[in-house]
Design goal:
By secondary structure, this protein is mainly α. It has 2 domains: 4-136, Fumarase/aspartase (N-terminal domain) (Fumarase C, Chain B, domain 1); 144-298, Fumarase C, Chain A, domain 2 (Up-down Bundle). Helices cover 59% and strands 10% of the residues. The chain has helices at residues 24-32, 42-61, 67-81, 100-117, 130-134, 140-177, 197-222, 242-254, 264-269, 272-298, and strands at residues 4-9, 12-17, 182-187, 190-196, 224-225, 259-260. Strands 1-2 form a two-stranded antiparallel sheet. A two-stranded antiparallel ribbon has the order 3-4. Strand 3 (182-187) and strand 4 form a beta hairpin. Helix 3 (67-81) packs across helix 4 (100-117), helix 4 (100-117) packs across helix 6 (140-177) and helix 6 (140-177) packs antiparallel against helix 7 (197-222). The longest helix is centred in the middle third of the chain and has 38 residues, at 140-177. It is elongated and about 75 Å long. The protein starts with a strand and ends with a helix.
């Protein structure tokens, strides 16, 4: 039988695996949401680490936390952001709509890792508390939307757009190479007037160009962060300077132009920015499907 340790929350004590950093709330989520097997994607886990890292630095800059604790929290959060603690994030995506369990998963993992760094006993909540210290000046209601935006922005800029650009360039190279190859055009699979193979591929090139443009046009709204709105958008329990300072920390860490959302009620109450970029991604997917089908069908 695997070893366990006793963790506690407001519902009482609970046994958790001794070799894992998560605590009672994460363990309860594992019990309560035995639905599917799709865990939170690594880019989102990384984004939660970025949130906690930047929040610790912001609280320190604003004089809201002891420097020793802030540095330990930041160090532990950095390990999360770097993917070193991915095995300690077991929760499935099927949970409460606000992402509370995953936010607490991050808080518990970072708190216990920070406690370990400081020479304390894991699970003791001393000297680092998952709620009072790691989640200071935050709420799940602004933390999780912020993590969603950070993950989406980073994946769009560092993964999706470069991949689309590489595809676009490859298609354009073929458009140039095959500029003089004449073939029969097709409409509704029937022979039509002549066209060059290069002309067909120039169309594919422009489709991908347009896809890149659509994704880039959706990014400004993604760069607006909800953090600082706390539970309902009023910023209760966070200093007025927290939101802007936090956004500066995130922009510095990610090297992307994140800013504080001008209206936190909108930022917490809707996911319109995510819907917008989802529409752009859907269009990109349809374009790529059409290109693939054309090449398959005409090959």
């Amino acid at each position: 039988m695997s070893k366990t340790r006793t963790e506690t929350d407001s519902f009482g004590p609970l046994e958790v695996p001794a070799d894992k950093y998560w605590g009672a709330q994460t363990q309860r989520s594992l019990r309560n949401f035995k639905i599917g097997s799709e865990t939170m994607p690594p880019p989102l886990v990384r984004a939660l680490g970025v949130v906690k890292y930047c929040a610790a630095n912001t609280n320190l800059a604003l004089g809201d936390i002891d420097a020793k604790l802030a540095k330990a929290i930041a160090a532990a959060a950095l390990e999360v952001a770097e993917g070193k603690l991915d095995d300690h994030f077991p929760l499935v995506v099927w949970q409460t709509g606000s992402g509370t369990q995953s936010n607490m998963n991050a808080n518990e993992v970072i708190a216990n890792r920070a406690i370990e760094m400081l020479g304390g006993a894991i699970g003791s909540k001393e000297p680092v508390h998952p709620n009072d210290d790691v989640n200071r000046s935050q709420s799940s209601n602004d933390t999780f939307p912020t993590a969603m935006h950070i993950a989406t922005g980073e994946q769009a800029v560092h993964a999706l757009i470069p991949a689309l650009q590489k595809l676009r360039n490859a298609l354009n190279d073929k458009a140039q190479e095959w500029a003089d190859i004449i073939k029969i055009g097709r409409t509704h699979t029937q022979d039509a007037t002549p066209v060059t193979l290069g002309q067909e591929f120039s169309g594919y090139t422009t489709m991908v160009d347009n896809g890149i443009r659509r994704v880039e046009q959706a990014l400004p709204a993604i760069y607006e962060l909800a953090q600082g709105g706390t539970a309902v958008g009023t910023g209760l329990n966070a200093k007025p300077e927290f939101a802007d300072k936090f956004a500066e920390e995130v922009a510095k860490f990610t090297r992307l132009p994140f800013t504080s959302a001008p209206n936190k009620f909108e930022a917490l109450g809707t996911h319109d920015a995510m819907v917008e970029i989802s529409g752009a991604l859907n269009t990109v997917a349809v374009s790529l499907f059409k290109i693939a089908n054309d090449i398959r069908f005409l090959g």
